[in-house]
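Final report, section 2: Outcomes. Of the targets proposed, Ubiquitin thioesterase OTU is the one most frequently requested by collaborating groups, and we therefore present its record in full.
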Amino acid sequence: MAGFALKVKTKVGQQIIINDLTSENTIKDLKQLLSNISNIPVHNLHVLSGFPPKTLDLSDDNLTLNASGIISGETLILEEKSNRKVDGNVEVKCNSSSSTTTKTADTIRGRQFNNVHQVAQQQVSRGILMKHVVPPDNSCLFTSIYYVLNGKEDDTGTVAPWMRQLIAQTIEKDPDTFSDAILGKSTQEYCKWIQDDTSWGGAIELSILANYYGVEIAVADTINAIINRFGEDQNFSHRVFLLFDGIHYDPLYLEPLEAVGSTTTTIQTIFPSDDSSLLNEAETLVKEANSSRQFTDLNRFTLKCYQCDVLLNGQIQAQQHAQTTGHTKFGEI
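The predicted structure is given below as tokens.
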């Protein structure tokens, strides 16, 4: 059974919680976990979910997550209570006068979310799109997706297997969408294949993970010099970027101009989906990579297995070799 996953956003960033909870844990367990990761006291926790964000009712400590309606994959926004509530409203003190302006909680939350959106847009216009190199271990797609969602690599080694299992479960539950013709093999064969840690993820996995996490995944394809956007038709509010060179995925991030070359800097990996400036920058990047042949021709490239020194021609031989030997370290020659 796959772990219960939550994406948690706070004012200092976001992270994905996997395997710390199950659907049978209680609201009390959830609040304690959220308090621990955010350093917000339990009694000051203000939790929102959905879009536009709305307050999540966490008043019944004994209610299980399953009974509460909180599902795996939910995105939770954590805030610390700082305003006094009066009959369901939030009092906001205006700096320009001594009068008190009262607005509904939903209005305030909507404005706060828009402010976050505006800050993201400002950051996008003042940085350089760069590549973060992840290990070539057959799970580079999953490692890259975790990176763009969290701003760091998974150091537990559990995320890639969990994502593979999630994909298998999604395919099994929807045979109409994921037919044998789409998969290129039977459902049973594909689900077994994708859970093998020597198998490489691709378009099917990208589509499933984009929908699961509720974020558009834009893949800069250096072979064809194009941007493939997964989840584009879902109108997700945010977008992340990956770079694909034919056999390997790496995550892309935005580094602020004033921090380029610095050893300590804050990067950005999640962006508003209605901002076209970064898409344009990604298109420029991928065209430059293509013109300088920074890609791997899947039909003609030769790989060397660094674990046994055998030479392999093309993607198919490399995948077959990995499946039969368990070797994962290859280099193009």
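Residues 83-125, 294-299 have pLDDT under 50 and may be disordered.
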